[in-house]
Each structure stands twice: as C-alpha cells, then as structure tokens.
Amino acid sequence: MPCQVALEWTAEPPRRRFRTGVSLHSHTLHSRESLDFIYQAARRAPVLAAVMRRGERQYQETHGTPMDLTRAWWTPPLGPHDAFKLERDQIRALGLDALVSLTDHDDIEAPVSLQIMEECRGVPLALEWTVPFGPSFFHLGIHNLAPAEARMFFEEMQGYRKSPDETRLGDILAELAARPRSLIVFNHPLWDEAAIGGDRHVENVRAFLRRFGAHIHALELNGMRPWHENRTVLAFAARAGKPVISGGDRHAIEPNTILNLTNAATFSEFAEEVRAGWSDVLVLKHYRQSYALRIFHNMVDVLRCYEQHALGWKLWSDRVFYACDDGSVRSLTELFGPRVPAPVGAFVAALRFASAPQIKWILNGAFQAREEVIL
After folding, report:
1. In the chain, what are the domains?
2. How far apart are CA 238 and CA 234, in angstroms?
3. CA nearest 18: which of 243, 287, 269?
4. pTM here?
5. Ranges under pLDDT 70 in the chain
C-alpha cells in the first residue's frame, strides 16, 4: 500500500517534495459537542460528582425539573472563516498551498457559508456523520459532496442517524462512494466513545468494516488521540487493506497536529489519490507535547472569553446549550443568569488561573513526558 507517515522533527521540509498541505477534520461553532461524558467522568471522580449534584439541585430549585446533561451540548469557539484561516495559515507557514476541509458534527453549514468567499473557493462541502451501529456509534468524515446533491445527502444521513437501518446505511454509503470525487474516512476508529469496552468496540469496528468496508476509503490517524491508539490504527488499517489519512480533530484554537501532503491542486484530485490508496501523512511537532497537557490547554481555550466571537457568544456559558422540557433551547447564561452554579464557576476560574503564564510554565514542567511517537 503506497501510504507513508512522516514525523516533522525527522523528515525533510515538506515543500521539497510536495505542493499542498491538507487539513482534514476540524470543527467550528456549528458543531454540537456532547456533555454526557461528564457523567462518565463523575463516576470515577467523587469531587466532580459532588459538584454535579449541587449544580443539579440549583437547576431543579430554579426551574422545577431535573437537569439531564445528555440534553446539553457545547459549541467550539471559532466561526467558519476563522477556523479556515487558522488551518490555512499553518499550512502556508510550511511553504505549501492549503486545502482545508471543515467537518462539523452532523452539520454542513460551515463549508456552505464559506462558498461565497473568494479566498475560500475550493473548500469542500463536508461533515462528520454520526453513524449508530450495533451497540455503539462511529464517526465518518464525509468530504467533497457535490453542491447540487449536498442537501439531499445530508437529509439522508440525518434520517439514518435518527432512525438507524443498516440496509439503508449500506445504500447511503454506496451512493456516496459512487461519486468519484467524494472521500469517506473512518474517523478515530479505535476510540471507544460509547464506553462499551475495548474488546467489544474493536469487534464492532471489525463487523462494520466487514459489512461496509468496500465504501470506506481510509482510516484516520487522529490528532486528538494518543499515539498508542494511532499506532494500533496503523496496524489495523494495514490488515484491512486501507490507507491511513490525517485528521486533526481541532475543536479550539490549536491548529491540527496531523496533516496530509500531496501534489494535488484541488480537493477532488486529492480525494482521487486517497481512493487509489495513496496517502502521505505528516505528524507535526506540536503533537509531541504531553497528551494530558494538550487536552488541558484545549479545555482552557474552550472556556476563554472571545470578544470577537462570530455570533457574539463571548462567554463560555454563552456557548453551552440545554434542551428544556418546553422544547426551547437556552444557553447556560440564559438558564442561570450572569452567575452560573458556584462549583462550576470555581472550576472555570481554576482553569483560567492555571492558564496564566507563570502557572502555565509550572504545569509544562509537571507534564514533562512527551507523547512518544514511534512508527
């Protein structure tokens, strides 16, 4: 399989061999990011569980109904144009032309909104599709939908997500793969997001690939997953006869840490290469930073104030939403007013304190262990 993975700190400068860098899989304010993972964390952290119980009591006292975090979500801070520029500028700094595919969760508004901008010409219509399967769900990167068909395919994917039918899933994937310019990527395939258990998750992945693998063009090396998982994906992809492809999975303001390199001039040409089994992946230097520290910094960035937010959602509580019993959707700011529950506020304040330059320097020392990236 003509697929290569290179490390920026040992490889020759990419501009010597390649014309273009490709940023795949990053998110904008159109993505809905689940908060139900907090329940899973609370089961292992008594302090967090106590904080949640207090917040739930305050919500019930104020609104008269229980709070259910499975009905809540947060949105990344960057608007489509800011997200596009962040990824484009990183690639240009490497001396390369840039192709950027933004893939929000089950939403295509970000790339659609960029179509009218001259500098964004060529941005593919794409999304990250949540695909229920067996006891869990997977995420597929669906890239380069034809403009005339994008809304139709989007409705088909939404229909399956809300009412899973594996026969229909096969039909949708076959129709998507039949478009020669499309690219279908199995995102972070070995991440057990539904927490069904590692072995059970792997068997579910194998079952999915046995049934639908003919329509999947590549498996993703994910920039927000630890290297031991990505290394396993490398072996998994080789056994499945699939190339690996980059996917940064950026949600905040750190640009993607894994890119693709190509000599293609357009995304359609790049998709054609990957579908033929060609993929050159570059792991960037900032991926080597301690995984725990990167996750921490991303949390801080999500909770920052953004004075220039594209929709005016400056506070972190403006960007967290809850589906209420009456059918309305309200931000945390609207639910609790200017003062969110005290334990939550204390947690956010602690994160902001930790992001101060002096404290950040101390934390960098505490997380000295780099991510070991061995091919």
Report:
1. 3-31+76-287 (3.20.20.140), 33-74+305-354 (no CATH)
2. 6
3. 269
4. 0.90
5. 1, 36-52, 54-56, 59, 63, 67, 338-369
